[in-house]
């Protein structure tokens, strides 16, 4: 509610995935602490958002769009002043490379400005009147209420702000819980939130999600749940809402994006894009390539070039120049990845690259696993880490069958230089996922493109314009013309 609380309660210690040498060996470094809200404090924050919204009568939801835009512009200027510190914290807190951390920050700022421009367009449109059958109508975009916003650890800034900004700029009020790995990096922005928005518009809560979020959902005071994270968590939270039919959910969830590398592919290009798509930020992207189908006639050549390219990738600390592979923030991740590899080996596959799957503290050396089949965890589970599962196939029916059976439906990539081959698959592929990439890796960007997914991969659509629509409702102000008001 626009105030920094003096904290006397429980705190959470944040250990960086970046390790330091100690007498006992390499150890994760303690880089800070943050307060752990109790359910009562979280509920107070929710109540502050409810009061600020005041059933649509509050200062913020009734404010002129141009004034809300001015608040967001002011916030963005202050955010830019904090760039160096935020980027440094992204590197230390989640182990993202310097180049990718800068990219994440810049992309977020570009997104905010693009959102402001798009809203100005929408606002101009709503000042136009439409006349039908003697009724003159103004179409407006109105807010939905109180939004609970939770972002992911892998894009703690970008993915959070691509929901948080459209939510508030449309006139909603908000409760924001940063991800467990990715909380400290928001600290430099809290003062900007406090000073740029009226009290209660943006309320930040820290703490253990499973201790505070369920009660917030059960209260029935949340109108919109926006979460970039796991389908399981999203489903559990939605069910807690007492009036689920009144809850709007805007969700970016699990994905297991496939690449299909046909016998007509440019192998070199396919290898480069597979490496980028599977291993950028160590494969910790919902948009990452997580399974590769390669036509059996080119599988040997593809694997040989893939091994070569993976062996050239540089491991290192996030701030080192040219580094591609960095420490993993989730302490249990290496054990899970090893379990997936072990399961694949027991079911007939091998790790085909040197050192694949080796670990040193929070580093995990990428593993190319071949030949993967449908008995393995790696066939279905979203590994969300540096493993490249490769499946040889004979007929296009096999990857298509995989996509149809999958519970995910975010993206697919197809690599082929035969335009007839691409054209004949495209109509089927585009009915399985929400984005088909031709001769390119899967990715969300540019952020102005619609970002969604089928099946368990998403609910609602993000982008610049789509997000503004998602966090609002079209309302009409309609006047029936009669002799008294026809002028
Ligand atoms: O994890 C999801 C991110 O939004 C990925 O974005 O694919 O454009 O890097 P990107």
From TrEMBL:
NAD as UniProt keyword: no
GO terms of molecular function: oxidoreductase activity, acting on the aldehyde or oxo group of donors, NAD or NADP as acceptor
Entry superkingdom: Bacteria
Keyword field contains 4Fe-4S: no
InterPro entries according to UniProt: Ald_DH/histidinol_DH (IPR016161), Ald_DH_C (IPR016163), Ald_DH_CS_CYS (IPR016160), Ald_DH_N (IPR016162), Aldehyde_DH_dom (IPR015590), Aldehyde_DH_Superfamily (IPR050740)
Coiled-coil residue windows: none
Keyword field: Oxidoreductase
Domain Aldehyde dehydrogenase: 27-471
Family to which this protein belongs: Belongs to the aldehyde dehydrogenase family.
Protein's name in the database: NADP-dependent glyceraldehyde-3-phosphate dehydrogenase
Organism per entry: Segetibacter aerophilus
Gene name for this UniProt entry: gapN
């Amino acid at each position: 509610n626009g105030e920094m609380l003096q904290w006397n309660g429980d705190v959470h210690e944040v250990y960086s995935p970046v390790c330091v040498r100690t007498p006992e060996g390499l150890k994760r470094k303690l880089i800070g602490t943050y307060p752990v809200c109790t359910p009562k404090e979280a509920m107070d924050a929710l109540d502050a958002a409810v009061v600020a919204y005041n059933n649509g009568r509050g200062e913020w939801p009734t404010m002129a769009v141009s004034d809300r835009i001015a608040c967001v512009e002011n916030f963005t200027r202050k955010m830019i002043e904090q760039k160096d510190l935020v980027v440094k914290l992204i590197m230390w807190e989640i182990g993202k490379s310097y180049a990718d951390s800068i990219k994440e920050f810049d992309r977020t700022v570009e997104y905010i400005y693009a959102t402001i421009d798009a809203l100005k367009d929408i606002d101009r449109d709503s000042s136009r009147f439409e006349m039908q059958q003697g009724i003159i109508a103004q179409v407006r975009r109105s807010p939905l209420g109180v939004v609970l916003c939770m972002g992911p650890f892998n894009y703690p800034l970008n993915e959070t702000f691509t929901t948080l900004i459209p939510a508030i700029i449309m006139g909603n009020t908000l409760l924001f819980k940063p991800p467990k790995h990715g909380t400290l990096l928001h600290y430099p922005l809290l003062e900007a939130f406090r000073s740029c928005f009226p009290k209660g518009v943006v309320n930040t809560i820290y703490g253990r999600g499973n201790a505070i979020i369920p009660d917030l959902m059960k209260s029935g005071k949340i109108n919109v749940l926006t979460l970039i994270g796991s389908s399981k968590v999203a489903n559990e939270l939605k069910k807690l809402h007492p009036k689920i039919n009144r809850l709007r959910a805007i969700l970016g969830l699990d994905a297991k994006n496939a690449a299909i590398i046909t016998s007509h592919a440019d192998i070199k290009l396919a290898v480069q894009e597979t490496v980028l798509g599977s291993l950028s930020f160590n494969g910790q992207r919902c948009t990452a390539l997580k399974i590769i189908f390669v036509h059996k006639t080119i599988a040997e050549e593809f694997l040989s070039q893939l091994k070569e390219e993976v062996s050239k990738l540089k491991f290192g600390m996030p701030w080192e120049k040219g580094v591609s592979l960095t420490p993993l923030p989730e302490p249990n991740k290496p054990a899970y990845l090893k379990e997936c590899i072990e399961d694949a080996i027991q079911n007939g596959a091998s790790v085909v690259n040197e050192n694949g799957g080796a670990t040193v503290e929070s580093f995990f050396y990428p593993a190319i696993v071949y030949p993967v089949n449908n008995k393995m965890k790696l066939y279905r589970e979203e590994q969300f880490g540096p493993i490249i599962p490769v499946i040889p196939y004979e007929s296009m029916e096999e990857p298509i069958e995989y996509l149809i059976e999958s519970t995910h439906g975010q993206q697919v990539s197809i690599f082929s230089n035969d335009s007839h081959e691409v054209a004949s698959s495209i109509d089927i592929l585009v009915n399985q996922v929400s984005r088909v990439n031709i001769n390119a890796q899967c990715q969300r960007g540019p952020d102005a493109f619609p970002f969604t997914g089928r099946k368990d991969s998403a609910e609602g659509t993000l982008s610049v314009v789509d997000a503004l629509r998602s966090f609002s409702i079209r309302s009409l102000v309609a006047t029936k013309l009669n002799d008294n008001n026809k002028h």
